[in-house]
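Work Package 3 (structural annotation) set out to generate three-dimensional models for the target panel prioritized at the project kickoff. During this period the team completed the workflow that converts sequence records into discrete structure tokens, so that structures can be stored uniformly alongside our sequence database. As a representative example, we reproduce one entry of 82 residues exactly as it appears in the project archive.
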Amino acid sequence: MKVLSPDKAAIEAESGEGGPLYRARDGVFDVPDSVARRIVRAGGSYRATAFTHARGFVCECGFRALIRDRCGRCGATDLREE
């Protein structure tokens, strides 16, 4: 399951005490379901599957975002609705 980290803030996630360490790629963790639930419960991140049909916003740099505040890649604030 894929889990999205807002603004690519998290780069690693631990599956539990002594468990494997997962690294994010462009703010996306590809982890087993049980680990995804822990990451989401910890707060700040959300499951990618929850937004597969959501409309979003596009930045001039080409990055797509779900929140209009600012681009998670370049920081621009003038995103247009998709």
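Residues 53-82 form one domain.
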